[in-house]
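anyone seen this seq b4? input:
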Amino acid sequence: MISSEPSGFRAEPSSHGDADGPPILIVPGLYNSGPDHWQSHWERDLPGAERVDQTDWERPALGDWTISLAEAVRQRPGAILVAHSLGCALVAHLAQVTSGRGIGGALMVAPADVNREGPAGRLLTGFSPIPRQRLPFPTLVVASRDDPYVAIERAEAFARGWGARFVDLGRAGHINVASGHGPWTKGRALLADLIREVETARAPGGGERPRF
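predicted toks r here
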């Protein structure tokens, strides 16, 4: 597991190494992802998968969280970032700071609207506004029509700003354990599609990725 330590960062060796595929960095949101969350299933099951840990999951600080993710990317160049909820905003902020250096691609699932009302929303104000510029790596945004943390229109607007492909899952809640998404095999298929897109873009003559 990749550990978040702004100074003296150290990552434990991966037990899922796979020389043939890109490294996978799991980027959870507020409160982390529990053992039954699809991100945790993927961390256990996918070759090369590592979780980016944070020192404080309950009081997110953009600066600290960004340092942790930046160091993880530095140690796993070319990684595919698999983000959920607030993790999506974190990826967008890191890309703004680093111009996406070292990031191979991103799967952004249920991107939380950091401007929403309510107690949880107030915890996220430090991540506002979410950067909306085009991301310089292949990106896929997956959202739901009844997500309590982001309206489908907002999620689609994020995707347009990021130049990302957009997948509407219909009524799928926050795409987490509470909405019935444990291993989430459909998500694994979407990740496989993204990885193929990344590998095609890297291949000689792959050219610029399409604009959406």
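Residues 38 and 182 are 5 Å apart (CA to CA). Residues 1-19 have pLDDT under 50 and may be disordered. kinda curious what u guys think
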